[in-house]
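Dock adenosine-5'-diphosphate; give full complex structure.
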Amino acid sequence: MLLAGRALSKRYRMGDVEVVALRDVDFDLAERELVVLLGPSGSGKSTLLNLLGGLDKPTSGTITYRGQDLSRADEATLTRYRREHVGFVFQFYNLIPSLTARENVALVSDIADKPMKAEDALALVGLEERLDHFPSQLSGGQQQRIAIARAVVKRPEILLCDEPTGALDAATGHLVLDAIVRVQRELGTTVAIVTHNAPIAQMAHRAVSLRDG
Ligand code: ADP
């Protein structure tokens, strides 16, 4: 198994109140799988995604990447895991406004081991004709596709997307999802997408629903 979570729990203490974000969740991600994580707001989807991406550690339970325990790894190991193996896409694009599409993507390819060309990553998401546009000259959906190109230009094994269409209308969101599906097919990337938009599940190999952790 590429990623295997067992009995994952995550609790946050806010003063006297303890919030249980995840309780006792088992979750596997197989190689080349495209999984959608569904559930209402606050059900623990982002928390689970953050554990898969090595952005956070569980309070209890284990999470392993190819058998390597991430739940007990030190920060340097988690940083290396994220840098080498994981691409992230969030609801907001976090592009650098003063750089073109190509330059935003090249920023990552410059520091990666065996990157794709920035132009090829942008072509993969259908932006080959917008290479020299600045973010402000592009629509929200196009900006999100730059963010996807930036996430995959280093050829990560795993792509984790947290509400990638959350700020977009349905039609534009569809183009963004098409781009993610294309990445999965053409690069063989393993993908997990957090959403509360149930129709997205139709494009997935598997949909998993969370309810109250
Ligand atoms: P979802 O992604 O499904 O909307 P989250 O994983 O973001 O859900 O949150 C699950 C629960 O954990 C929520 O009740 C949320 O308020 C709580 N939570 C998430 N992150 C934190 C945090 N850093 N500190 C305190 N509580 C948190």
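Observed: Residues 50 and 56 are 6 Å apart (CA to CA).
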